[in-house]
Write a structure and sequence with these properties.
The protein is built from 4 helices and 4 strands; from the N terminus they run H-H-E-H-H-E-E-E. By secondary structure, the chain is an alpha+beta fold. It has 2 domains: 3-58 and 145-178, no CATH class; 74-132, no CATH class. A hairpin with a 2-residue loop joins strand 2 and strand 3. The radius of gyration is 33 Å and the shape is elongated. Keywords: Membrane, Signal. Its main location: membrane. Residues 1-20 form the signal peptide. One of its GO terms (cellular component) is outer membrane.
């Protein structure tokens, strides 16, 4: 809980009313809520003038795969695509074997092997073509600035406050004012 949030009720009590900044709803002021207990809270609402709102920015780092190429040409090795096809077929067959029972399981195993072989061949071919052009896939780290909130300075009844909000409030900020006695033994009724 920020210092401004703890001090706000005490400063509101000490300040003279400024009716130009205060708007209220009598039902809201009384604290009546159809789902709440029948005892109203000592709460009111008003509007504060926003003096400034500054973006709070965080640097986010992400890793993105990127193709890097050199000016060399290599020969194609058909074993690379064959290996990819075989590995893809084995993985596909193992996954297909987990489906169904009896003849359905056999059919799913065959279908998984064919699909896995095609996928493995495609992946291996793309990688082999990139390598044949002298290219390779590397992960590149990127930094991006992201707005994570706003530090807002505002004035309510002549006093300045500061809060961090997840949005830019514009020119006015609705504030909740809660008043309680500064007596440890006093109970709010």
């Amino acid at each position: 809980m920020s210092f401004a949030t703890r001090v706000l009720p005490l400063l509101v009590l000490a300040s003279a009313p400024a009716f130009a900044q205060y708007e209220s709803d009598p039902y809201e002021d009384a604290g009546y809520d159809e789902y709440a207990p029948s005892v109203p809270e000592n709460v009111s609402y008003g509007y504060a003038q926003v003096l400034r709102a500054e973006e709070v920015v965080e640097i986010v780092r992400t890793r993105i795969p990127e193709e890097r190429c050199e000016d060399t040409v290599e020969y194609r090795d058909s074993r690379r695509t064959t290996n990819g096809t075989v590995i893809g077929a084995i993985v596909g067959a193992a996954l297909g074997n987990q489906v169904g029972k009896g003849d359905g399981r056999k059919a799913a195993t065959v279908a998984g092997a064919v699909a896995g072989g095609m996928i493995g061949n495609n992946v291996a071919r793309n990688k082999a073509e990139a390598e044949a052009r002298g290219c390779r896939i590397v992960e590149v780290e990127r930094e991006e600035r992201q707005v994570v909130g706003y530090d807002v300075e505002y004035m309510y009844k002549g006093d300045k406050y500061m809060s961090r909000l997840p949005y830019d409030p514009g020119n006015r900020l609705r504030v909740r004012v809660s008043v309680t006695p500064d007596e440890p033994s006093a109970a709010v009724r």
